[in-house]
Design a protein that fits this description.
It contains 1 helix and 19 strands. The chain is an all-beta fold. A 4-stranded antiparallel sheet has the order 2-3-4-5. A 4-stranded antiparallel sheet has the order 6-7-8-9, with no helix packed on it. It has a 4-stranded antiparallel sheet with strand order 10-11-12-13, with no helix packed on it.
C-alpha cells in the first residue's frame, strides 16, 4: 500500500479512516479535547477550531468498533474510556492500569489493541475490556499508533525507531521494517484498499 504523511499543528494527532467514505480523517488531540477535522491540510496549517466533542484528561488516540462505540486512550490516567457514538460515556474505566497508552485499534471481532509507549509493547483486549494478551507484541521501540487491516494484520508505528512494523493476526512479525525513514511517526490508519496513512511529528 501507499503512504501519506501529515504534519500536526496541534499537540498530538492520530488518524483514522472514515468507514462511510473510506477517507482518512485527522483526529486532533489538544490538551483535553478531541475534535475531528476531515481536511488534513487545514489542520496542518491552522489551529484546531472545531467544537468540543468529548472532553477527557490526557487523550492520545480514539478508535471505533462496528457498532459505532468510541474508545479513547488517556495517557495521564493510563486507561481507555468507552463512549457511545453520540459521545455519551459508557465506561470511563473500560481498561485501566496501562503504561502510557497511545495508539489503539479495533479489529472486526471487536478486540482492542493498545500501544503502551512506556512498556514498548502492544496489548490485546476483548470487546468486554478483559485482557487477552498483555504482551501481544513486545520489543517495540516507542509504539505510537496501531492499525488493523481487513485481514487482521497489524501495523505499529515506532516513534523512536522512525518506522512502521507489520504483524500477523497472532502477533508474529511479518515485516519489522515495513516502512522506514520516518520522522517520529505517531498515528497510523489503513483504508479498505490496504493503503496506510501515517502522521509524523516532524519532517
Amino acid at each position: 500500500g501507499g503512504i501519506t504523511a501529515f504534519s500536526s499543528a496541534v499537540d498530538q494527532a492520530s488518524i483514522a479512516v472514515n468507514a462511510v467514505n473510506d477517507a482518512p480523517t485527522i483526529i486532533g488531540v489538544t490538551n483535553r479535547t478531541l475534535a475531528e477535522n476531515a481536511d488534513a491540510q487545514a489542520l496542518a496549517e491552522e489551529a484546531l477550531t472545531a467544537s468540543d466533542w468529548i472532553t477527557v484528561s490526557g487523550p492520545t488516540d480514539v478508535a471505533s468498533d462496528a457498532s459505532g462505540n468510541l474508545y479513547v486512550t488517556q495517557a495521564a490516567p493510563n486507561k481507555v474510556s468507552k463512549y457511545s457514538s453520540s459521545g455519551s460515556a459508557i465506561d470511563t474505566d473500560f481498561i485501566i492500569s496501562l503504561s502510557s497508552p497511545g495508539g489503539m485499534a479495533v479489529d472486526a471481532s471487536g478486540n482492542l489493541f493498545v500501544a503502551e509507549y512506556s512498556a514498548n509493547k502492544v496489548s490485546q483486549y476483548s470487546s468486554s475490556g478483559s485482557a487477552i494478551n498483555a504482551d501481544f507484541i513486545t520489543n517495540v521501540s516507542g509504539p505510537g499508533g496501531v492499525a488493523v487491516d481487513a485481514s487482521g494484520n497489524l501495523f505499529v508505528t515506532e516513534f523512536e525507531g522512525g518506522k512502521v512494523s507489520q504483524y500477523s493476526p497472532d502477533g508474529s512479525v511479518l515485516n519489522a521494517d515495513f516502512i522506514t525513514g520516518l520522522s517520529n511517526p505517531s498515528g497510523v490508519a489503513v483504508d479498505a484498499s490496504g493503503n496506510l496513512y501515517v502522521t509524523q511529528s516532524r519532517g
